[in-house]
Design a protein that fits this description.
Keywords: Membrane, Transmembrane, Transmembrane beta strand. With 658 residues, the protein is mainly β. The protein is 13% helix and 43% strand.
Amino acid sequence: MAGDLPRRAYGPDLRRADPRLSARGQFSAEGRKNPCDRGAGSGHSAANPASWKHCDGSVSVRRPQFVFSAILAASVLAGPAHAADLVSFITPGADEALRTTLQNASLSREAGAAKSPNAQDLFASARADYARLLGVLYDHGYYSGTISIRIDGHEAAAIAPMDAPARIGQIELTIEPGPRFVFAEAAIAPVAPGTQLPKDYRIGATARSGLIVEAATAGVAGWREAGHAKAAVAGQKIIADHRANTLAADVTLAPGPVVHFGDLHTSGNKRLRSKRLVEIAGFPTGERYAPEKMDKVRTRLRRTGIFSSVTLTEADKLGPDNSLDVELAVVEEKLRRMGFGAEIASSDGLTLNGYWLHRNLFGGGEKLRIDAEIAGVGGATGGTDYTLGARLDRPATFTPDTSAFVVSEITKTYEEDYDERAFTLGFGLSHIFNDRLTGESAVEYQWSEVNDDSGRTIFRQVAFPNTLTWDNRDVAANATRGYYGMVALTPFVGLGDTGSGAQLKGDFRAYKGFGTDNRFVLAGRAQIGGVFGPSLAATPRDYLFYSGGGGTVRGQPYESLGVDELEGGTLRTGGTRFLGVSGELRAGITDTIGLVAFYDAGFISADDYFSGGEWQSGAGLGLRYNTPIGPIRLDIAAPVSGSTGDGAQIYLGIGQAF
C-alpha cells in the first residue's frame, strides 16, 4: 500500500531550490500497517505533529510523514557531552558507532549534563530529540526505527506544553534502529556533463538520507558551473519499501537557461570611491556565469585588507537576455593598523621590528605601509643595524589582479667585516596569477657606501628585481602539509665602478604531516644563491651571500661563513655562490606544546658550487608553544662541522624557523 505525502512533509529546509530538494515531490511507504493509525483510534500527537503514536505511547518513525521530514532535516549533530545520571540511553540493535552518534546528537543528554539542569530545558530538549535522533537514523540508512523518549515514565510527545512537569527525575531514551535500508533506485536527471555525484548514491548502497541531498546539491552545482545560474530541483519521488528494506529515490532537476553576468550594484563603501570599488572587484559583466568568477570577485576585495565584510548576492530574477545582476555590500575596516615583532639569538642579539599601515590612503584603495627594524642589539655581529622602509600599493592597476607600487628603503648596517649605508628607490607591478602563484617585477635605483679594510667604496646600480612565489601550504606560520617555492632573479646595470650582472636566489620548502591530526611533521628546506657577471670586488656587498645564523645554519654564528678572496686573502666578504639545506622533525606533545629536532648546513664559495668553497653545519633541539598568531619558538643548537664557531647558540622568536 502506498500513498503520497502532502507537500509540507518535506519541511522548509528542502524548499530551497539551491541546494536543497524542492517541495514539489512525493514520499511513500509500502508494506506497513499500524493498528494505532487514525483508523484505529490514534493519530498525530498534538505536541509532535510529525510523529505517530503506538498503542503503548511510544513514537514510531516508520510512518511516511516522519520518514520524509527527517530525510530533509538530515543529521544536525550537537557536540558531545557527558550525560548526567538522570538521562539514560537504551539502543537495542545499534552498533557502538551508531549509539555514539545518537548520544552526541541528543539535546536531552546535553541538557542533563549541565551543572544545574532545570525541568524546562530538559522538557524542551526531550521533545526536540525526536527529530534530531530521527535525522541520525535516516542519515545512517535506518527507516524502520522506533524512538521512545519517556519523562518519568510518560512519553514526552504525549505531554502537552501547558502540562510540562515542574520537576524531572528521569529521562529514558530508547532507540531501536531496525533494519538498514539500501537504495533500490538512485536516480537524478538531467545531469550536466562532468558532474561528480556522490559515489555511494547508487543501487545497493546504504540509503543514507544525506546522500539524496548531496546528489541534489551536486546536480544543481554542476548546472551552475555550466552557466545555468538558476538551476534548481524541480521535483523528487522517494519511496520506502519496508517489506524489502529498500529506498527508491528519483530527483528531477530544472537547469534553466544559460546566464551571463549583468550589472554590479554596490553599497556600504564610505571612504572608498564607488568607481574604484568596481575596478578592484573586477566584476565580469557580459561574461558567461560561473560560480568561480563570483569567488574571484570576493577574493580580490578581501585581499585588499580594506573590508571587514564582503557580501555578494545574486538577483532573484534574471534580467533582459538572461542577464544576472549582483548586489555587492561591503563593510570597511578601520583605516590604520600597527604591528610589532621581536626575535633574539645569543650571537645575533635582539631584533625588534614594527609596522604602521594605512588603508585606503587617497580613497582609491591605496595601502601605505611603513616598516622599521633595529637588529643586532647586544649581539656579537659588529653593531646595531637600522632599517626604515615604506611601500605604497595601488590595487587594480591595469587589471583587477595587478597592483602598482612605489618602494623606498634606508639602511645603516654594522657587520663584522664592513659598515654600510644604503638607499633604494623603485617602482613596479605585482600580479596574482591564481590563489597559489604570485609575481612581482620592479625597477630600482640602489646606492650604497661601504667601509671596510680596503677603504671606502661607493656602489651604484639600476636593478630589475623579478620574483615568482608559489605557496600551497595549509598554514604559512605553522605548516603541516604543502609546498612553498620562491625564485628571484635580479639583473643589474652598474654605474661608475660597479659591475653589471645578475643575482639569482631560490627558497624551496616542503611539509609532510603524519599521525593523528598531523601530530608529527617532516619539514625540509633548500636554498640556493648566486651572482653572475661582475667580479667579486665590483659586486655590491648586499648582493653577496653569507652562511650562519637563524636564517641559514643554526648553531653557527650569524654570517660567520664567507670568503677571503680580496686584498691577497686579508679582506673577508660574502661569496658569490650559496647553498643551504635544513631538515626538521616536529612532534606535538600536547595541543600547545611541541618539540623539534633539526639539522642545518650551508655552503659558500667565491666561484663554483662544487669546488673551492666551504661547508658548515649545525644541529639542535627546539621547543614550540602554539598561540593564535603562530608558535613561539625556542631553539638551542651547536656546531656540527666547520671552523666558524663553537658553543651553543640560542634562538627565540615567533613562527617556525621556516
